[in-house]
Write a structure and sequence with these properties.
Order of helices and strands: HHH
Structural class: mainly alpha
Low-confidence stretches: none
Protein name: Protein of uncharacterized function (DUF3847)
Strand content: under 5%
Number of domains: 2
Coiled coil: 4-38
InterPro entries: DUF3847 (IPR024215)
Distance between the termini: 81 Å
Keywords: Coiled coil
Length: 96
């Protein structure tokens, strides 16, 4: 009888350790999800900020840009990026 009680006690201890470990694993997985979500939100905010900043720069350089359509702005930028001067400047900037 005492042997059976010892076995049951050891079993309960092992089961408790397993339960604790599984709970800790669940907590760590949730923590990982939270961190990954925070990273995604941070990157999205950085991208949004960059797009707004660059859009503001573009509008400041194009006279009456607010009167142009998105398509017209796209055409202007496409044409500007085809120029020899643009390509040379970009090459120099990338080398530095």
């Amino acid at each position: 009888m005492k042997n059976l009680e010892k076995i049951r006690k050891v079993y309960r201890e092992i089961k408790d350790k397993i339960d604790d470990t599984e709970e800790r694993l669940r907590q760590l997985k949730n923590q990982e999800k939270k961190i990954l979500k925070q990273d995604i939100v941070k990157k999205r905010k950085e991208r949004t900020h960059r797009l707004i900043t660059r859009g503001a720069i573009l509008e400041s350089l194009i006279e009456n840009a607010e009167e142009l359509t998105d398509e017209e702005i796209k055409i202007l930028v496409e044409e500007a990026t085809k120029t020899k001067e643009f390509k040379e400047t970009l090459k120099i900037m990338r080398e530095n």
